[in-house]
Amino acid sequence: MSTETKKLLIIATFAEENPDKATLPFVVGNTALAMGNEVTIMLQSSGVFLATKGYANHVQAAGFPPLAELMATYKEAEGKLLVCSPCLQARKIGAEQLVEGAQIVAGATLIAELMESAKALTY
Q1: Starting from the edge strand earliest in sequence, which strands make up the sheet with 119-122, in order?
Q2: Residue 101: helix, strand or coil by DSSP?
Q3: What is the value of pTM for the model shown?
């Protein structure tokens, strides 16, 4: 197995309407970070709600740790969290409502992240 650091992009498009698909990006992201890889999670569509303060406190997928715990671990491990600007605007979510470390970006940043990544997953 190679010890070279790889970059993984995970696109998350779900929130509380599908707790499994809201949680799995952070499960996989934390695993990849623990293996020494770089990880970026991009929140799009209703997934942007995951970046709002306190939202993850009430999302729990069966068989997994609470989402808030997974997100805290992800942040501590220096995973990058990007949030879709047009998706935020459509849901009337302001920057002041976002968790610390969330970066608001648009399409060009997503494409740049995708092109730099070894692999990409979508949930």
Answers
A1: 102-105, 80-84, 38-43, 7-12, 119-122
A2: coil
A3: 0.94
Residues 6+ apart with CB under 8 A from 88: 48, 94, 95, 104
Q: What number of other Cβ atoms are within 10 A of residue 26's Cβ?
A: 29
> Mean pLDDT for each 10-residue chunk of the chain (123 residues)?
79 98 98 98 98 97 97 98 98 98 97 96 97
Alpha-carbon span 123 to 121, nearest angstrom: 7
Distance spanning both ends of the chain, measured CA to CA: 26
Rg of the Cα trace of the chain? 14
Total residues found in the chain within this entry:
123
How far apart are the C-alpha atoms of 123 and 109, rounded to whole Å?
Answer: 19
Q: Per the structure block, which two tokens stand in for 10?
A: 């995970």
CATH code at 7-122: 3.40.1260.10
